[in-house]
């Protein structure tokens, strides 16, 4: 009998046996979200949509912010088009189910990386690199004269439900023996209104979120964020657990934005840098050629085009450009870079080697 026949039989027979057994089904092959995004031609991104500076619906009906630019960078790197994003606004309580149920491909929504959320026994997320190092703060009226948490003894705090904020507030106040009253809300807008109506003496939330809230107040200068911080809130995009290919792709797209900043590669000069590395002054710079996808197969290893970083930076700029566009000194939501500077400038953003 020809060898070819046995080969075929070896492949077919387990399926035949499964079929004859009647009750067993062959295990379904899992298709990575990277493949699904590509065949759909669109990235489904979960965002807040209510946080100026991070993700916010403009009057023109488009979303803007650091978190939405991460969605755009991922769409550019995977699909070659930053506009191919379908956004879903999610509250804190909705966000993890949206990811685990497959309603969204990527969660890019001021979400703190924690052990419980990362672990399989928790929300089953895989975190991409941190895109904003935040911390929990407290906002009060300036004329209250409050400068410490002790000054808020017995007062009520407006706080978002389903967040790390809620638990941190309990932990810190309990540890310091300060009685308080939490008043929970689903969205920042409800929380702000309650505070402005005098239903709580303070709002506690991520500093970024307090900053967004204050920027929208009629008289921002009448409100202050206390100096003391209640927690570390490293905010990171997340994908569903168990899809390594998709998680790796998202992780290295984010690193690409950071590495581009480190190397001075910007939206404005990227085409020049590509030309120079292809046949100009930089053509002997092998590391740069690999980073830009002119040489080697770095993108291919991730299932992405080799020029995926070029696509992303061309579309949204490097990490620093994204930051400045939404949180820089010329914006109403200005937050000094501090920990969010690239490591060479004294911050914490550090992309591993593109090797
Ligand atoms: N970073 C914290 C808090 C995130 C959070 O959702 N904060 C609320 C504060 S109200 C918020 O920004 N909500 C935005 C929204 O509901 O659109 C976490 O991951 O739990």
What would you say this structure looks like, in words?
This protein is α/β, with parallel strands linked by helices and 355 residues long. It has two domains: 33-131 and 236-264 and 315-341, 3-Layer(aba) Sandwich (D-Maltodextrin-Binding Protein, domain 2), CATH 3.40.190.10; 135-233, D-Maltodextrin-Binding Protein, domain 2 (3-Layer(aba) Sandwich). It is 39% helix and 16% strand. The protein is built from 14 helices and 14 strands. The chain has helices at 3-21, 33-40, 66-79, 95-100, 115-118, 164-175, 188-196, 207-216, 244-262, 270-279, 286-291, 298-302, 308-316, 319-327, and strands at residues 43-47, 50-51, 55-57, 63-64, 85-89, 106-107, 125-127, 132-141, 156-160, 181-185, 202-206, 223-225, 231-235, 238-240. Strands 8, 9, 10, 11, 12 and 13 form a six-stranded mixed beta sheet that branches. Strand 9, helix 6 and strand 10 (181-185) form a beta-alpha-beta unit. Helix 3 (66-79) runs antiparallel to helix 13. The radius of gyration is 24 Å and the shape is globular. Residues 1-23 have low confidence and may be disordered. It binds glutathione.
SSE inventory with pairings:
Blueprint: H1 3-21, H2 33-40, E1 43-47, E2 50-51, E3 55-57, E4 63-64, H3 66-79, E5 85-89, H4 95-100, E6 106-107, H5 115-118, E7 125-127, E8 132-141, E9 156-160, H6 164-175, E10 181-185, H7 188-196, E11 202-206, H8 207-216, E12 223-225, E13 231-235, E14 238-240, H9 244-262, H10 270-279, H11 286-291, H12 298-302, H13 308-316, H14 319-327
Parallel strand pairs: 1-5, 1-6, 9-10, 9-11
Antiparallel strand pairs: 2-3, 3-4, 7-14, 8-11, 8-12, 8-13
Helix pairs in contact: 3-9, 3-13, 9-13
This protein binds glutathione (GSH).
Glutathione binds at residues 48, 50-51, 91-92, 110-112, 160, 163-165, 187-188, 191, 205-206, 209, 233, 235.
